[in-house]
Structure formats: structure tokens, C-alpha cells
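Lecture 7 notes: from sequence to structure.

We start with a single chain of 335 residues. Read the sequence below before looking at the structure.
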Amino acid sequence: MKNSQHFSSKITVRAKAVAQALALTAVLGAAPWAQAQSTYPAKPIRFIVGFTAGGSTDVIARILSRRLTETLGQPIVIENKPGADSLIATKLVSQAEPDGYTILIASGSHSINSSLYPESKMDPVKDFSPVAMIGDGPNFLVVHPSVPANTVEELIAFAKKNPGVLNYSSSASTTFLQTELFKSMAGIDMTTIPYKGSGVAVPALLTNEVQVSISSIVTLLQHVKSGKAKALAVTSAQRFSLVPDVPTVTEKGLPGYVASTWYGMLGPAGMNAASVKLLNTTLNKVMFEPAVKTQLINQGLDPIAMSPEEFTKFIHEDEEKWAKVVKDSGIKTQK
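Now the structure, written as C-alpha cells:
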């Protein structure tokens, strides 16, 4: 009996030792990752931009990177990966390690591309960790001075009386779909003329090759001030502080029309929640500092703070909105 009790006792001691060893192994195995997250960021962070240097997304990324570098204590390195409506950049980020050191600075095309390019099989939410909204970039709805319209109502009325007479420029998927949404909601017919970027599309408006354009406020503002183009409205839900006297499309003829270009920050799917929260709270603080906010507004961006959960919901809703516009427009998607 004593031998049996002694043997049972030895088993119990050995089992405890094994359990303790396994627990220690688990802790040691997790230690490098846990330590890396607890000290995040511990090395430079890459901001991936899906457009060329000098464009609005790139400029916004650089404005934020300077202040975030100071605040986070690590360099922010901008990497431009242009092409395919930013799909090259989004694919790179979606396949990166979810350690918080590869971050996508996205624009409105991020939630449109899943409908325009279904062959990419890129889900704008599931393949990413939405970190934070940066802001809303309203566009101008402008016309050439020869168009007999000074308001949105007058433009719609003229287009209805003259179907197909007006040409409009499109230089990206965002501006094309924003104009298609305008056409659909207004019940008018205009002809699209595609251009390879605003650098070509804007001169086309100024020379009356096209008569209507929806494009960046910053890009068009100098021409509006000089009288070479007429700004009828801004495309945001609210008036924009840079041009407070210009009404919204909604308040001047087309209730419910909102078609701004948003900008945001996303990481690969599976990012550590603590890293997401740190980037979110830091960004939301930095972009409302007076100097940074002024720079963003001067770039045509209205800063907006959102939690990661709110930003995730926003992208979902934006994807659904533009999927319907793509379907209704009859545009040929790449399958």
C-alpha cells in the first residue's frame, strides 16, 4: 500500500513538473512577440501609398508622417507603389506581416476597387485591419464659363434640355463614379471623356474640350478664382472651410448627393489590437493640432476622427454604395 501511495505521489510530482515546463515553454515562445507589441513601435514604419509622389494621397501621407515620426519616436518611411487604381499597394499591404510596420494610406478607391476589379479578390475590410479615418476630401463640381449655369439646379435644367451635349472629364475611378452618381440622381445624360490624370483633365476643362468636371478643390481653386472655371458646388455633406461660400450639391439642387474622396489608414488583417489603438489615438490627436490641421485643410482635406470600429463600418457602407453605382452605370468590370 505504501509503495502504491509512493508511486502515485511520484506521478503527481512529475505531472506538475511537466505542466510547469510546458507553461514555461509557452511563455518563452510568446515572449518575443509579446515584447515586440509592448514596445511598439520599435523600428521604422512604412507608409505605403498607391499613387505617385506629389499626388494628394502622397502629400497627405507626408504631412502626417513628419508629426507622427516625432510623436511615435520612430521614422515613418513613405513608399510609393502606384498603379492599377492603387491595387498594387493594397495587395502589398494585405500580404505583409501584421506587425504594425506596414501601413496603407488609402483613398476612396480602396472601397471602390472590389466592384471595379472583382478579379483582384481583394476585400477592403476582411483583408485589412482598419486603423483610422484621416479625413474627407470634397471635390468641386465645376463647369466651363460658356455653360449657361451658375447653380446646380441650372446645370441640371440645361442638361435635361440638351441631352448628350455636355462632356465631362474623368481622370480616375473615383471621379468617374462620382459623376455617374450625379447623372443618375439628376436624371441627365452627359458624355464621359477619360483622361490619364488631373494634369490632363483640368486643361481639357479650361479649353472647353469638356464642359463639366468633378475634381479636387485644391487642383481647381486657382482656376475658379481666375474665372476660367465656375464652381457650382462642393460634393461633401457639409460646406468646406477652405471655400465656405460655395454651397453643397445637396443644398443646391440634388438632395442626398454626397461623393467626397476619403483618406484613411489600414494595416494587414490580424494586426495586434494594441498597435491599432496606439496608431488610432496618436493620429486622431496629431491631425487636429492647429499646424497639422491647417496643412490638411489647405490640401483640400477635412480631418475626421473615427475609432477603428467606426472606420470599419464606414468602409463597409462605402463599398456597398459604390457597388450599386458601378452596377447601375453599366461600366465593364475586369473579371
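The CA atoms of residues 287 and 293 lie 5 Å apart. Keep this in mind for problem set 3.
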